[in-house]
Amino acid sequence: MITELTSRRYFLTFLSRLTSLTSLAYLPHFSCKTAGKNSGPGQLSTTAITQETIMDKKLTRRESRTAKQLLKGAPDQVFPLLCPVREYDWIDGWDCKVVYTESGIAEDNCVFVTSFPNEGPPETWIVIRYEPNRLIEFIRVNEIRTIRYRIELTDNGNGTTSAQWNQLITALNEQGEEYIDQASQEKYQILIENLQRMINHYLETGQKLPFTNPEAHWERS
């Protein structure tokens, strides 16, 4: 019993020190000044990031985009269509490679990959929130930018659904900043309007609305 307690104590001490050391690896890559000069073996020196250092660091660019839709179906009809597999049914030009899903369709932690020229390099999508008939949220990431993409549905009580589409775009480099310039609020509004036309056409007819040029999704028809 004593040996077991001693071993457990050593393990917890080791785990505590390992956690402390691991946390240092995630400190921001700012230049830091050491506050403690006399750090001995097994002791972690205290660091402090000066305000001057933070001000010298160039922060990356981040912008949001938002748009609304009025969809001709109840949330239980609309929500299943917000899926990388089901989007083949109603988005002309849609293409993706599903990397992981247990159900065969969208789900929490589903992963898929897309490659569209107007979206920059190939990107990976991860479903980070999945609330059936109410909300789906993705993280999209490629070499130039990340996007947090959220679609929230509201039942209007008359057989229609209001959909709120939000994007939070963060540039990772200069190419990402150029992407933000290209993907303006005006173009995003046009894109969501075109998607509204496509999904409503499918809800009404069960057929895909022809849209042969994927880049035309950004253009007002």
- Spans of at least 5 consecutive residues whose pLDDT stays below 50 are 1-7, 17-37
Q: Could you spell the SSE succession in H and E letters?
A: HEEHEHHEEEEEEHH
Strand order of the largest sheet: 3-9-8-7-6-5-4
Biggest pleated sheet? 7 strands, antiparallel
The overall pLDDT, averaged over residues, is 81
Judged by helices, strands and strand pairing, the structural class is alpha+beta
Shape verdict: globular
Helix content: 25-40%
N-C termini distance: 77 Å
Q: How many β-strand stretches?
A: 9
Number of helices: 6
Summarize the structure in words:
The strands form 2 sheets. The protein has a 7-stranded antiparallel β-sheet. Strands 1-2 form a two-stranded antiparallel sheet. The model is unreliable at 1-7 and 17-37 (pLDDT under 50). The chain is an alpha+beta fold. The radius of gyration is 24 Å and the shape is globular. The chain is built from 6 helices and 9 strands. A hairpin with an 8-residue loop joins strand 5 (111-114) and strand 6 (123-131).
